[in-house]
Design a protein that fits this description.
The structure holds two protein chains of two kinds. By secondary structure, chain A is of the alpha/beta class. Chain A has 18 helices and 13 strands. In chain A, helix 2 runs antiparallel to helix 3, helix 6 packs parallel to helix 7 and helix 8 packs antiparallel against helix 18. The longest helix of chain A is centred in the C-terminal third of the chain and has 25 residues. The radius of gyration of chain A is 22 Å and the shape is globular. Chain A starts with 9 loop residues before the first helix and ends with a helix. In chain B, a hairpin with a 2-residue loop joins strand 1 and strand 2. Chain B is mostly helical. In chain B, helix 1 crosses helix 2. Chain B is built from three helices and two strands, in the order H-H-H-E-E. Helix content of chain B is about 35%, strand content about 5%. Chain B starts with a helix and ends in a 7-residue tail after the last strand. The chains are: A alpha/beta, B mainly alpha. At the A-B interface, helix 9, helix 12, helix 13, helix 14 and helix 15 of A face helix 1, helix 2 and helix 3 of B.
Amino acid sequence: MTIDLKILTISKVKEMFANGTLTSTELVQAYLDQINLQDKEINAFREVFSDALEQAKKADNIRKDNPTGASAMSLLGIPFAVKDNMLIEGKHAGASSKILENYISAYDATVIAKLKKAGAIFIGRLNMDEFAMGGSTENSAYGVTKNPNDLSRVAGGSSGGSAASVAMNAVLVSLGSDTGGSIRQPASYCGVVGLKPTYGRVSRHGLMAMGSSLDVIGPITKTVEEAEEIFNVISGQDRYDATTLSDEDVKNAIVKSSNINLQKLRVGIVPELMNMGGINPAVLKNLNDSIEKLKSAGVEVKEVSLPHIKYSLAVYYVLMPAEVSSNMARFDSIKYGGKVEGKDLLGDYLNTRGELLGKEVRRRIILGTYVLSSGYHDAYYNKANIVRDLIAADFKKAYEEVDVIITPTAPSPAFKMGQNSSDPVAMYLEDIFTVTANLIGIPAISIPSGFVETDELGAGGEKIKLPLGVQFMAPLCREDVLFAIGKKFVSTIK
Amino acid sequence: MIITTEEIQKLASLARLKLTDEETEQYAKDLSGILKYVDQIQEVTEGADTTSTSGKTPADFPHRNTMRDDISDQALNPDPQRLVEAAPKHQGGLVEVKKILG
């Protein structure tokens, strides 16, 4: 049977499962065929699990033999693929790094356990920048993930495999992680939806830590509805992650924004961000078009001031490397991963970390070591924390005027492979719109907002079109606002 | 802020990273560029009277200290044997390391 993978969503698949026109096994086989066909070129998958079909068959059997059990599993037989930095018991997990080449997960990450309980199946693990450090997957030790829309360009990163796999219809939905934009930016580059939930709403137990005050796991999907459904399954307090929020914490946070009316959302635009330069003209035009579409749909749009947001990226590139340098200390050649022998214990450390960690990871460790070192701690780390609070205060004030803030997701469409790799600052600037949500913990979503036509021709002689995305940022714990405005926005561009 | 190759060597040794000469030079250049960019936070003079906020999450955050009793909770851990087996070198259920004291 031929399945039109492009039009499939979780709800469509569930409907087909229920009326018997599709089985999980058939669906997984179709995705495996698609991977065989395309992934040699795209390189979204680090590994396709050998038991993918077996998992699907099991799900089909539950549906057949145990209808009561099946009805309690909201994602029964739904195929997921996950970023290579999340643990699935018994499977390899490597964060696309040589240092974890032979590592096998000893337990399930909490998000994986929750999805398994809901009946989801896992067909593979996805390429990423090594330890999630990068914005293009060019820092993967296993090669770049190419953009399905244009093979000369990057898929974005660090969750590049997560975005490309969904965009190329090689899996229904995926999980990524976002420390400074790593879900939203590749989603924008590949033309799919990417959700970064509120800090603490989704457990990071079993996610390899990068910046512990910033990291969060979220879904990458084709539609807002699917992102919402997955978020509802994976969120919640977790005894294994002390930073997760309790239901009461969430309720207390929502009280602070209780004046929001989901039927009548007010959208804020930020002149400080739009006027700072360095934004691709096509991106600016697309943002303005998006704002006009919202206005014509009756959405109130007004300007808000965020005077300190221009410092967000600088703050991020102090705090994130500081946290990286401490988190990466666990890769010591003793507890897990690879080992390069030295003449003594110190030699083991130096050799293993020097040879098996990639260039960008080592760059960030050194930078983090610098900003935390005595003499510079006050000027960088403490100062950055002060500015972080000022940025949070700006947003608090802005959210008195508006319910959600719109920006482009990234300052440019997907860039050419190699274009930014010689200049770290140029690469870091791709994060300019996304890092703020991580710094202050708020939820944000990237939603496809159209295409920009390039002058280059594709294989069929037609002009290549690159996807663009807009980002919505809501107050703490107000993912519901993102889903509401996201659905509204999608309805205006159809 | 200009970072010298000597400083990179010192930082690399603190971070337990072996670098080649070429890498040391490259990182000195990279770090100088990155620090030049992040130095713009020094323009901000507000908030300077607040006590150091280092290490805490932003002001409006719904977080609080999470405490639990200091008792061993087996359920908190996966099978210890599997964790030991993840070590590159292990023997008889123990992780193997080189001699630390002379």
